[in-house]
Amino acid sequence: MSEVSRLFASAFVLLMAFAPTPASAACSTNTNVLAFGASPNTGLDSTPAIQNAIDATCAGGYVYIPAGKYTLLSSGGVSGFYQNGSPVKTALKITRSLHFYGDTAPFSKTDTGKSILMLGTQTRMRLLSIEAGGVLIQGITFDGNKLQRFKPGYDYGSPSPSLVVDSLINATTGSSWVSVNQCEVRNGLEDGVGFANSSNMVVSNSRFYGLGYYKQNTDNGASAVSLYGATGATIQGNTMSGNSIGIWANYGTQSVLITGNTITNNPKGAMSIGALPNDNTGYNPLAPVQNITITKNTLTGNGYPIDTAPPAEAGQATIGILAVRTGTISENTISGNVGPGIFIRGASASGGLPSAPSSNWTATLNYIQNNAGIGAHYVGPNVNMTLRWNVITHNGTFIGHQVVTTPETQLNSDYLVNNQISY
After folding, report:
1. CA–CA separation, 335 vs 342, rounded Å?
2. 63-85, pLDDT tens digit by residue?
3. CA dist 176 to 14, 106, 235, 273, Å?
4. Which CATH class for the 3-422 domain?
5. What ranges do the domains of the chain cover?
């Protein structure tokens, strides 16, 4: 049995573990949204019908979305609040353990899911909020309908006062054992899947594309998967292409496995892990980002050019690590990206802000080649860095761009002989 299959099976067992015996016959173990009045392929609002189907399902039951495109125009309620106190609206909300599944999952890069949930024109709300443990989302396409929600001149940073929320699918604070499997998440102004202060989450075998309103050299944009204070997440076997960024992990996120993903053509980089102390939205001084494993991923075509920078510094980093404690980067193919292949940075104490080194990172058995920026770049007070047994070749513009380190970084002294370095 494959690792993904084991994760899927474990998630199903946990789903059933969260399911108490129903107290009455008022709920159903199997519901079909059509029986509640959902209207696919008509452009009519299916939000109330689908929410009613969810609410009528017993804990541990199944909610079925047959093939078709379901438009979500109205909000099914509020799921939390922004820092400024304004409510976060959501089309659909799951508050008990459920299996929420569609008709046919996308199985290749050209297929599309057959059960499609799409936000309506000019809506500002999540597609789905999850406020429970033991939830499995499978075989559904979530469409943010970006072109119909876009307005020229608006700020599309997230969350903005215009039409952007935090993510299309969001597992809120306190949720656990949520799995998103064999889904398609696309065309959002915001992140695709967001896990906020939640635990033991899985995103597997899914496809993400067209997420984020990206504008060169601005902070606007969104990621395929966003981890904000999440613990114990697994991101495995997904395809992420044409989003602002592939994976973003920040604000105390810990114990994450990122493996077997194909991440291509995301202009702000494949992965951004951690934050420096001057980023008060991403840096948590009480709980640093730590214990991150990045292995067996294929990362190509990510980043965008920065015209004022020299070639070695061009573009966003493919894998960017900022003030993160303990991690492994191994057996990845990092090739043909615009920016640096691996970029690890720590921060010295400055302006009243604390020192925040990256520490205990090991990079081994990676192919880092043909990137426009530096192959492996270490900046600032990084502690106990190890770079061994990698192939690092044809990055930047000359041999000196394969590995670059600043004096503050503690890098193994034999890195020049224990990596295959050439140009």
Report:
1. 11
2. 999 999 999 998 877 777 666 67
3. 10, 25, 15, 21
4. mainly beta
5. 3-422
